[in-house]
């Protein structure tokens, strides 16, 4: 697979699964809200995206709907993700990370080069 790798300073659109707009606190299959950021030499908030309840769940048929909503994102951060969902997202060129905590702290670690390494 020819996967495009992240290079420090290069802009990357990242989706964070967050119920409260500040912490990564949602399981992939239950994530209703996604905080979208552009991260590169700095970071900027883009928007909040919502997944309709009917498309939430842990069934493969629902993964396509999430993928459609996050189509322009290169990476997703979730509190947890099942193996089949992770494989599906990776097969569709999305980098998947399990994390918890403040979105701002995770972005700081990305900018320091501690995450998304080659």
Automatic annotation (TrEMBL):
InterPro entries: Di-Nase_FeMo-co_biosynth, DiNase_FeMo-co_biosyn_sf, NifX/NifY_domain. SUPFAM superfamilies: Nitrogenase accessory factor-like. Residues 21-111 form the Dinitrogenase iron-molybdenum cofactor biosynthesis domain. It comes from the Bacteria. PANTHER family: DINITROGENASE IRON-MOLYBDENUM COFACTOR BIOSYNTHESIS DOMAIN-CONTAINING PROTEIN (PTHR33937:SF2), IRON-MOLYBDENUM PROTEIN-RELATED-RELATED (PTHR33937). This is Predicted Fe-Mo cluster-binding protein, NifX family. It comes from Anaerocolumna jejuensis DSM 15929.
């Amino acid at each position: 697979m020819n996967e495009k790798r992240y290079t420090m300073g290069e802009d990357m659109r990242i989706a964070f699964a967050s119920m409260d707009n500040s912490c990564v606190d949602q399981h992939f299959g239950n994530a209703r809200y996604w905080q979208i950021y552009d991260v590169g030499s700095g970071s900027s908030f883009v928007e909040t995206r919502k997944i309709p309840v009917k498309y939430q769940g842990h069934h493969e048929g629902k993964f396509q709907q999430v993928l459609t909503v996050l189509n322009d994102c290169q990476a997703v951060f979730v509190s947890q993700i099942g193996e089949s969902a992770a494989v599906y997202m990776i097969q569709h060129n999305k980098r998947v990370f399990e994390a918890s905590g403040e979105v701002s702290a995770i972005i700081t670690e990305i900018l320091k080069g501690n995450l998304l390494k080659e």
